[in-house]
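Appendix B. Raw example, untouched.
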Amino acid sequence: MKTKIGILLENRFIDQEIIYYQHRFPEAGYEVDFLTRLWGQPSLEFTGLELEMKITVNKSFTELSADSWQDYGALIVPAGYVADYLLYAEEARELSPAVKLLQEIMADKSIIKGFICHALWLAGPLPEVFSGRKVTCHNNIISHVENMGANYINQDIVVDDDLVTARDGGLFAEFAGEIIEQVEKK
């Protein structure tokens, strides 16, 4: 049984969104795992964009084995600047570790993938993975998702099989509800 919801984290996340996830997913019976690239550190502390909330993350997605992902019902890329920070790669034109993770996870249909607001920035380097997929996103990145071959749908929440997207960060409650519903369907 899928018992965890993974949430990628970096600086400048939307505080209210993360607070909601910390409560809503456990209420539905799921453990929340915040995951990041730890850069060889035992933990890193991240700061929210609006309330300057602090969250310490001690799990690195770069250290999880393929078998570890079998416990996860969903992987979420939250709103704010999380996706932008996770795009960083040491070499130009190289895929970042987070993009490589996304490429791997997108191939596993048993895991729901959730992107809210600007989160699809992280998917930009993977047009072959997102081409033809139905998505919604923040108005500022519609051209970005269309340029990577995704089909923008003008709705607040869009579900395309194992992919759930939400238009903006303020929709976190509806988005979380849809993630739970889709995980339970799998």
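End of appendix B.
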